[in-house]
Amino acid sequence: MPSIIIDALNLILEKPLAFLFSILLFILIWIYKELRNKYLENQKQDEKRTDEAISLFSELELEIHKYLEKKTEDFFYFWEKVSKVNSHLPNKMYLLAKNCKSETNEKKRYELLNQLRKDLVDEIDSLKNTQMNTFSKRNESLKDKTARFTHSTLKPFIVPIIDLYLIFVILLILYLGLRLFFSLDSIDKQLFMISLITTFIIYVVSVYLVIVDIIKKKKLPSNAYDRAGFTLFLIIPPFLTVLFPVWYVEFIVITMIIGYMVYLANKVQKMNR
Predict the structure, then answer these.
(1) Cα(116)–Cα(242) distance, rounded to whole angstroms?
(2) What is the pLDDT of residue 262?
(3) In principle, which of 5, 35, 56, 179 could form an S-S bond with 85, CB 3.0–4.6 Å?
């Protein structure tokens, strides 16, 4: 056996914690690299999709303008444009365009088209606000430069770190929970530990998803009811866990967390209709 391998084995035996730490560090760096590559790939796809949507929505808005201003009589050409944009249209606008097609009353059709045009302009403005324009750096304000630096330089490093931290926290919860689980001597205590581990993981992931959603929207829940729900969502699960350390309470907490996440998902879906 080569001496370098023997020296390496002796070093591992002498300092096993350092060896394990090195392995863990290597794994974390590898995971971070994969997360960052995935983030950059998704970012490029999102930017490409945003550019395509702006271009297609602008063309559709122009066709609606021509039709409303009597510059064209070909309504089916307009619907041909809609069919090309379908994959990018939010559900609400798609249904509005569909109603335009089926509407036989000319006055009502004009009203629907006006509403669709207004929604398209709003959507284009919203997409332009998220778009990083690489062709207009000349007269950028300090705010624009800061936004560009954050989007192109900071976020590709920070977002994967947040994802990595979430993975680390979940693994830490599993490790500590399982160590405690195997040290317990009764089924009731083991059931409680399993439910506690599950609750912690679901809670951490749920809080992470809610916070990421808030960051993307750049604002907290809009009305008092939603803000109160979010506050209770943060406080009640850990409060009940500490106050009532029994396994069936943990399942109640899990149900509450899942219920809140389903409520948020349904609300987002309704907003997109």
Answers:
(1) 52
(2) 77
(3) 56
Radius of gyration (C-alpha) of the chain in whole angstroms: 27
pLDDT tens, position by position, 25-72? 788 888 888 888 888 888 888 888 888 888 888 888 888 888 777 766
Structure tokens at 243: 């106050």
Contact partners, residue 227, CB within 8 Å, separation at least 6: 220, 221
CA distances from 116 to 38, 60, 99, 122 (A): 35, 10, 10, 10
The residue count of the chain comes to 273
CB 28 within 8 A of CB 164: yes
> Could you give the angle at the alpha carbon of 79 between the alpha carbons of 74 and 85, nearest 5°?
140
Contacts of 201 (CB under 8 A, 6+ apart): 170, 173, 174
Q: Tell whether pTM > 0.85.
A: no
Q: Which amino acid is at 62?
A: L
- CA separation (Å) from 201 to 28, 208, 250? 19, 11, 12
- Within the chain, which residues score under 50 in pLDDT? 1, 273
pLDDT at 76: 73
d(CA 97, CA 87): 13
pLDDT value, residue 136: 54
DSSP the chain: --HHHHHHHHHHHH-HHHHHHHHHHHHHHHHHHHHHHHHHHHHHHHHHHHHHHHHHHHHHHHHHHHHHTTS---HHHHHHHHHHHTTTS-HHHHHHHHHHHH---HHHHHHHHHHHHHHHHHHHHHHHHH---TT--TT--HHHHHHHHIIIIIHHHHHHHHHHHHHHHHHHHHHHHHHHHHH--SHHHHHHHHHHHHHHHHHHHHHHHHHHHHHHHTS--SSHHHHHHHHHHHHHHHHHHHH--SHHHHHHHHHHHHHHHHHHHHHHHHHT-
